[in-house]
Design a protein that fits this description.
171 residues; mainly alpha; two-stranded antiparallel ribbon; 7 helices; 71% helix
């Protein structure tokens, strides 16, 4: 089948991009949040993040927890500073929880994408129902995921013919 997929960025390139986000989160969290928000919009980056990223997020959450504890336990004469530490700590914990949930969803998407891609490229399937069966998903999910894969460049020269419920591969 000539519907070759675009080569994904090397593991090293993905690693350095996520490392920059992680370091920014740990060292200067406002910049880190901005970079993280940009990465979270990139479906391709979420599908296969480096294994180190959840560790960095957990460290960030621990720092947030220290802020919360510091805000609760701190001296009463510095009430404004303690409230600030409490609010920032809670925000960091909430953002960390959101990131962990988003990463888990990205990994699930990545696994589905790999199954669909294998059915299309390795097994040569073009009928949507057959591809869905091979990937153990509903046909509607297969159509949506295949369209996402086309949009982010995982499948090149492939379009979906919805009326015939199959894929068309351009030569």
């Amino acid at each position: 089948m000539s519907g070759r997929s675009e080569p994904s960025p090397t593991h090293e390139a993905r690693y350095w991009g996520w490392l920059a986000v992680g370091l920014a989160l740990l060292l200067f969290w406002p910049l880190g949040l901005y970079q993280l928000a940009r990465k979270m919009k990139d479906k391709r980056a979420l599908i296969d993040p480096p294994d180190l990223l959840p560790f960095v997020v957990v460290i960030m959450m621990l720092i947030g927890l220290v802020g919360v504890i510091g805000g609760i336990v701190g001296a009463s004469d510095e009430m404004v500073a303690n409230t600030g530490a409490l609010v920032v700590g809670l925000c960091v914990l909430i953002i960390g929880t959101f990131v962990i949930a988003k990463l888990a969803g990205g990994r699930k998407d990545g696994e589905r994408f790999r199954k669909l891609r294998n059915a299309i490229l390795d097994d040569g399937l073009t009928e949507i129902d057959a591809i869905a069966r091979a990937a153990s998903v509903r046909p509607e999910v297969a159509i949506k995921d295949i369209q996402d894969m086309i949009d982010i460049g995982f499948l090149r020269n492939v379009t979906i013919d919805r009326s015939r419920r199959n894929l068309v591969v351009a030569a």
